[in-house]
Amino acid sequence: MSKLIAGNWKMNLGPKEAVTLVKKLQDRVLPKKSVEVVLCPPFLDLVPVKEILDRQKFKLGAQNCHYLDEGAVTGEVSASMLRGLVSYVIIGHSERRVQFNEDDKLIAKKLAAVARNGLRAILCVGENLHQRQSRLSVKVVVDQLTADLSLLTASDVDDLIIAYEPLWAIGTGEFATPEQIEPVISAIHRTVEELYGEGGASGLQVLYGGSVKEDNAKAYLNQEGIDGLLVGGASLNAEEFIGIVKAAQAAQV
Ligand code: PGA
After folding, report:
1. Does residue 245 have its Cβ closer than 6 Å to ligand 1?
2. Any atom of ligand 1 within 6 Å of the Cβ of 211
3. pTM listed for this prediction
């Protein structure tokens, strides 16, 4: 299966700075079929970035969307508005779950909206530090998945990407070791298989995210069950991000 590297820029870089970063990346990244590289800038950067984007090298993603296609919802952006502009949408990032009280019920509706509009969701799941210390990592992630996927068909899940992002590893520099994440990655595959049948979602891709850097990318990319990486902080640094993309391209050889 091909690898996927996604850069989540979060609430960083205005349109001008975004275009500068994308140009820098485009100068240095060579396209390779086996690795899809997705850039997820803030909403207002999507149009200017799309105008200069080399589509052989990068695809665009949004960081969130509303579950309705249109309506009286001040300040929101719908998946139907994103159609034609992006190919991917991050759903259920822990920063949205924690800071905006997004629960699994809402996330399920957002995933349905993404599927209905023909886009691919990058669904984020993961446990917090307290839950990990209480040995609840697998349970938390399985519960999240079971609720989040409740409105999706097997063919929707075929297009889905699930990013396992332990909260204690996000933006902390405290990345999870391959041994720590192995049981959760296996549980993600097992849960989807149980819900949709063996081979029922053969296109599903599973990513790791949380303090990914050029230095640790290779270890995750070589790990069984991991099809790529969701990169936060390091995706804002051209050198680091290019290093991660190159590690993924090399891992395919
Ligand atoms: P980080 O963020 O790479 O800065 O830890 C990852 C994410 O939040 O997706």
Report:
1. no
2. yes
3. 0.97
Taking each continuous run of H as one helix and of E as one strand, the counts in the chain are 11, 8
Residues 34-47, mean pLDDT to the nearest whole number? 97
Q: How far apart are the first and last CA of the chain?
A: 13
- The percent of residues above 70 in pLDDT, for the chain, comes to 99
Ranges of each domain in the chain = 3-251
Nearest-angstrom CA–CA distance, 212 and 185: 16
- Per the listing, tokens 């050198």 go with 239
Least-confidence region, from 66-80, 116-130, 191-205:
191-205
> Residue 86 has which token pair?
């992006």
Between 141 and 252, the more confident residue is 141
Hey, how many other C-beta atoms are within 10 angstroms of the C-beta on 222?
A: 11
Q: Whose CA is nearest to atom 1 of ligand 1?
A: 232
Catalogue the active-site residues: 93, 165
DSSP, res 206: E
pLDDT for 129 beyond 80: yes
C-alpha to C-alpha distance for 184 and 158, rounded to whole angstroms: 20
Among protein residues, the one whose CA lies closest to atom 2 of ligand 1: 232
Instruction: Please determine, for residue 177, whether its predicted confidence score (pLDDT) is greater than 70.
Output: yes
State the CATH class of domain 3-251.
Answer: alpha beta
216 lines ligand 1 (CB under 6 A): no
